[in-house]
Amino acid sequence: MSNLDNLPKIDIEVSNVDENNKGFFLKIDTYTLKAKYDNGAESGAFGFDLIRRRKSQDASAIIPYFVDENGVTNVYLRSCLRPAIGLKSMPAGSRVSSSANIWEIAAGVIEHGETPLATAKRELREEIGFDSKGLSFVQLGLPFYTSPGLSGEELYVFAVEVDPSKRLEPSLDGGEMEKRGVIQTIFLEDTLNHIRYGEIKDAKSEIGLRRLQDIRS
Questions:
Q1: Strand pairing of 154-161 and 59-67?
Q2: Is 17 in contact with 29 (CB distance < 8 Å)?
Q3: Is residue 123 helix, strand or coil?
Q4: Is the dihedral of CA 80, 199, 145, 184 positive or negative?
Q5: Which domains does the chain have, with CATH numbers?
Q6: pLDDT tens digits for range 175-208
Q7: What three-state secondary structure class fits 144?
Q8: pLDDT digits over 33-68, tens only?
Q9: Are 155 and 146 in contact (CB under 8 A)?
């Protein structure tokens, strides 16, 4: 494997910050910044909008799977209402969008006092319906930045083998966006084709499913 060069060292100096606390789940902080380089030079001032979650900066995802009677690995996906997708495609002047539902792996924000693994266990019960007691969880690689152009959020991905007969009704988190979620099992190897043809378009889901495929193939 070829090596990556060392990244050039660039520090950030904050000249001013304007905090916006009006969002439901997120806040946008508008910064005036300067980049400071390792040779002593610095950039001119520039603006940057940083999106932060109100509860937490990071998140965890969980992929429950089982091996069927034919030895094939199946995974659980969940439909997720994502208003940003519907709003993006909404025709000018309209107040109703086309479908804002997509397939994803289960995930949620790491709440105060939780570890990434504790969050994965909570989301397994809330979004898919499995109790985590007695199950063995595997972290799929290191956490990654989900959208570094906008946010510093890092996402952890875990996998866990489950017994399909023990799945309960998902407890959900009480929010409106989770109420009509649909849960589906699908062959792990087939998810890669659905990714390839744009039927699974969520980035964390693609990364997680590919990582699981790596250790299950």
A1: parallel
A2: yes
A3: helix
A4: positive
A5: 10-53 (no CATH), 59-216 (3.90.79.10)
A6: 787 777 899 999 999 999 999 999 999 999 999 9
A7: strand
A8: 999 998 999 999 999 988 887 777 899 999 999 999
A9: yes
Residue 55, C-beta contacts closer than 8 angstroms, at least 6 positions apart: 25, 109, 111, 112
**163 is written with which tokens?**
């017994």
Structure token digits, residue 53: 């979650």
Is 86 within 8 Å of 180 (Cβ atoms)?
no
Q: How many angstroms separate the CA atoms of 116 and 126, rounded?
A: 15
* pTM of model > 0.70: yes
DSSP designation for 128: I
Residue 97 CB-half CA count within 13 A: 13
- As given in the structure block, the two tokens for residue 193 are 């084709």
Residues in the chain: 217
